[in-house]
């Protein structure tokens, strides 16, 4: 691909999605970012950028409380987040990157289109991402690269190579795995997560590759008796995930689960990794590989990306 140096020098990118911000950074265009979402925090340098979005609900509280606040907004036909049009007006972006994947995860495409239409003196190109599987993520990286005038192939090739390292090692056993994306109410992880579990040498019990994360009944989890349970709540870091997981597994019904009895319950930084469909899905796969097959893999992720929840 021919690099458009003139275009790159004039880029002013507003990324309204954490994974998109990471994609832009992986392409070497961090300095072209002029605005971010309220959740964009990686690479750390982007925290200094103006914030272009904000939630319409209080993100503090228990999983149950957050779920109820978001549900109330959606039932009222309201968006969960809003775009700060006044900030975008000042930034005058040439490109805005957003998503059409999940109305609970980030600002909606419709909201971004309305905000962009209201801008004066500028008509930014809107790039909307909607990945469902790993191949979609790789394609999105190349699509963003093309739109921004750079070559995305080396980045994608490097990520695919890391995936192949995990997928090429075959383990003697493939444990059954329940990935929990939300604690109360229970939700299993979908989209690319079942694919990652399979690549890491496990058998995903819930969620279908390429399908949205499904709600999970306690009875389903108990009947499946997963050998390994991995918590990866959307929006929660390692410490907060540990708090939520402990509140559940310390109850009587959880203590009877095989994974809990054997000390095979793990917590992860779902906010930084599993729920961001960008370059760090390769890290997410490495985290899973370490958890499922420590005899085969050691990437140094323990303590930062994941921890075993202590047995009681």
What does this structure look like?
The chain folds into two domains: 5-151, Rossmann fold, CATH 3.40.50; 172-308, Nitrogenase molybdenum iron protein domain (Rossmann fold, 3-Layer(aba) Sandwich). Helix content is 38%, strand content 14%. It is built from 13 helices and twelve strands. Strands 7, 8, 9, 10, 11 and 12 form a six-stranded mixed β-sheet that branches. The protein has a four-stranded parallel β-sheet with strand order 2-1-5-6, sandwiched between helices. Strand 5, helix 5 (109-117) and strand 6 (125-129) form a beta-alpha-beta unit. The N and C termini lie far apart (56 Å). The model has no long low-confidence stretch (mean pLDDT 91).
Summarize the structure.
The chain has 312 residues and is α/β, with parallel strands linked by helices. It has helices at 5-9, 18-26, 63-75, 85-91, 109-117, 134-148, 153-167, 193-199, 218-224, 238-249, 252-255, 258-261, 281-292, and strands at residues 13-15, 33-36, 53-55, 81-83, 95-99, 125-129, 176-182, 187-188, 203-204, 228-231, 265-268, 306-308. α6 (134-148) packs antiparallel against α7.
Number of DSSP strand runs: 12
Task: Please give the largest β-sheet.
Answer: 6 strands, mixed
Large-scale geometry: globular
Number of structurally distinct domains? 2
Helix/strand structural class: alpha/beta
Poorly predicted runs are none
Task: Tell me the fraction of residues in β-strands, as a range.
Answer: 5-15%
H/E element order: HEHEEHEHEHEHHEEHEHEHHHEHE
Q: Using only CA atoms, what is the Rg?
A: 20 Å
Helix content: 25-40%
CATH class of the largest domain: Alpha Beta
CATH topology of the largest domain: Rossmann fold
The span between the termini is 56 Å
CATH architecture of the largest domain: 3-Layer(aba) Sandwich
Mean pLDDT: 91
By DSSP (H or I, 4+ residues per run), the number of helices equals 13
CATH superfamily of the largest domain: Nitrogenase molybdenum iron protein domain
């Amino acid at each position: 691909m021919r690099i458009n140096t003139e275009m790159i020098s004039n880029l002013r990118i507003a990324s309204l999605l954490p994974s998109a911000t990471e994609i832009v950074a992986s392409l070497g265009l961090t300095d072209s970012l002029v605005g971010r979402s309220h959740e964009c925090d990686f690479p750390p340098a982007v925290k200094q950028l103006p914030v272009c979005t904000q939630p319409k609900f209080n993100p503090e509280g228990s999983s149950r409380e957050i779920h109820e606040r978001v549900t109330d907004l959606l039932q009222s036909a309201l968006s969960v987040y809003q775009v700060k049009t006044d900030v975008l007006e000042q930034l005058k972006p040439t490109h805005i990157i957003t998503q059409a994947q999940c109305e609970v995860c980030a600002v909606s495409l419709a909201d971004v289109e309305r905000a962009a239409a209201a801008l004066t003196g500028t008509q930014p190109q809107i790039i909307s991402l909607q990945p469902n599987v790993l191949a979609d993520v790789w394609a999105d990286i190349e699509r963003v690269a093309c739109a921004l005038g750079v070559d995305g192939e080396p980045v994608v090739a490097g990520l695919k190579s890391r995936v192949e390292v995990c997928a090429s090692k075959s383990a003697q056993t493939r444990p059954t795995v329940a990935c929990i994306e939300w604690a109360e109410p229970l939700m299993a992880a979908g989209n690319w997560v079942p694919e990652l579990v399979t690549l890491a040498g496990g058998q995903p019990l819930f969620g279908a590759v390429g399908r949205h994360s499904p709600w999970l009944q306690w009875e389903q989890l108990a009947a499946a008796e997963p050998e390994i349970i991995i918590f990866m709540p959307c929006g929660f870091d390692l410490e907060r995930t540990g708090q939520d997981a402990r509140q559940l597994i310390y109850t009587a019904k959880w203590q009877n689960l095989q994974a809990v009895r054997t000390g095979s319950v793990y917590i992860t930084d779902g906010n930084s990794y599993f729920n961001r469909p960008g370059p760090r899905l390769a890290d997410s796969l490495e985290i899973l590989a370490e958890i499922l097959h420590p005899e085969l893999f050691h990437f140094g992720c323990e303590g930062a990306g994941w921890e075993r929840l202590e047995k009681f």
